[in-house]
Amino acid sequence: MVEPIKVGRFIAQNRKNLNLTQKELAEKLGVTDRAVSKWENGRSIPDVGIIESLCKELNISIGEFFAGEKIQEKEYKKETEKMLLASLDEKQLYGVQAVIYILEFVSLELLMLPFQLSEKWPSINRINIIYWILAAVVFFCMCYLDKKMPERRLRNSNKWIQGIEAAVGFLWVVFPIASKERMNIFQGMSIGESIAIGLEIIIGFIIVVGVAVIQSKTRKEEWEEENNSKKSD
Question: Which CATH architecture has domain 4-85?
C-alpha cells in the first residue's frame, strides 16, 4: 500500500533538488503551499488528477512517485506493477482473498470429484482426466494470484472471510460435496451414537471457526504493528 510519509519525503527531496520552494511548486500545480506542506509531511497525498503534473514538475515517473524512491530503469516495470498492486485498499484486498479461497475449494473439489462419484477407486478415463487437469489449472491460478497480490497478512486478517473459509473447509471434510454417502453419515447408529457424533461435529466446527477468527485478529494486530513501525521509521 502507498506510504504517505515515504512519498512525502520523496516529494520534498526532489523539490529541494530542483531548488524550488513549496510556494513555487504549489504555483506550478495550481494548489496552495499548505497543500504541498501536507504532502511532504505525510498528512495527505496529492489527488489522482494532479499526480501526473506533479511528477512532470519533479522529473520523476509515476511509478517512482508511488514507490517513494528512485527506480533503476531495468527494475521500473517490476516496481511499477508492484506499486499499482500495493495501491489496492483493504476492501479490495479482502475481495481478492475471498476469490483465492473460492479457487482453492474449486480446485480441491475438482480433484476429489472422481473419488466421490465412484464407489471404488476411480478409473483413468477421459472424464476423470479432464477433472484433474481442470483442478491443476485452477490451483495454479489460485497460487499465482496469491503470490502476486500484496499484503498477504492483511488479506488473511478479515475475521468474517477467515471464519467462513474455516467453516466451509470443515464441512467439506465432514460432508464431502457430491459424495453418495454424505446424507447417510448417521446410518446404522443408535440415537445415542447419533447425538454423540452430532455434538462432536458441532464442537469441532466451533473450535475450527473460533481458531480461524482468533488467528485473523492476531494477523491484523501484527500487520498494524508492522505498518505503524514502518511509518515511524
Answer: Orthogonal Bundle (1.10)
